[in-house]
Amino acid sequence: MFVIIGMIIVLASVFGGYSIHGNLSVLFQPIELLIIGGAAVGGFIIQTPSRMLGAVIKKVLGVFTGRSTSKKEFIDILALLNEIFSKMRKEGLIAIESDIENPAQSPIFSKYPSIIRNKHALSYICDNLKVIISTNVSPHELDDVMEYEIETHHKHSMIPAHSITKVADALPGLGIVAAVLGVVLTMGKISEPPEVLGASIAAALVGTFLGILMCYGFVGPMATNMEHAAEEGMISFQVIKIALVSFVGGAAPQIAVEFARRVIPSDAKPSFNELEEALR
After folding, report:
1. Cα 157 from chain centroid?
2. Model confidence over 93-117: pLDDT tens digits?
3. How many CA atoms does the CB half-sphere of 215 hold within 13 Å?
4. What confidence score (pLDDT) does residue 163 get?
5. Measured CA distances, 95 to 21, 100, 138 (Å)
6. What is the pLDDT of residues 162-217, one digit of tens each?
7. Neighbours of 199 (CB within 10 A)
8. Helices (DSSP H) in the chain: which residue ranges?
9. CA gyration radius, the chain
């Protein structure tokens, strides 16, 4: 919603400001939009591996529908881990085997549908719990392995943002291409009167304008939005890692999740009392 509002503000500011003294019809150049937009899409397809095209498009659409991880979702993660740790402490490590093998059918996991829906976080939790119950892994080794996985996932999640950034960087140049083509057409009208030449040159220059506007007003900010979303998505993984490493290191279940709570950003961090109430 805020992305759409931002786009409306950009359009209203640019075209509204121009319309005070200018003629908006001059800026309506669908052929130049076709040249710039088509070349940008073609370049995007060339630079993006086929296996990543769907993911990038999904992330672009997610800019309009995406949302931040809520306090309730962080509480769910911490409460789930606390239940799992408590069960492991009371009944032994093997007691959670059926839960992590089929979390969708687990009486513990099923209490937290937000985690079931987050496939990456769910896999991260279950895979590392399998390591804990099947090997005598040290806290240091577990920390390293989980951090490597976070780094790999982060690099992969940043690919769509980097791809769209490249498209944004190309738009001013593609705008110049459209403008040059317009100048080429204008040169074919060199014998026409000045008012005809002036209108043709103005139309050609609109290409440069459109390329720059699309780069800095729309596509570039969308790429930045995708970067921020990817960075924020890593927070849940850090929370899970801190809790698991602390528990393996010997911390009590409630202490382990308290350590994990500390790494949640302040705008979504549950208070100590809120977490304690949730764990009850």
Report:
1. 7
2. 888 999 899 998 899 999 999 999 8
3. 19
4. 94
5. 75, 10, 20
6. 999 999 999 999 999 999 998 898 888 888 888 788 888 888 899 999 999 999 99
7. 14
8. 2-19, 24-27, 30-47, 50-65, 71-91, 97-101, 113-117, 119-134, 139-187, 194-213, 220-248, 253-261, 272-279
9. 27
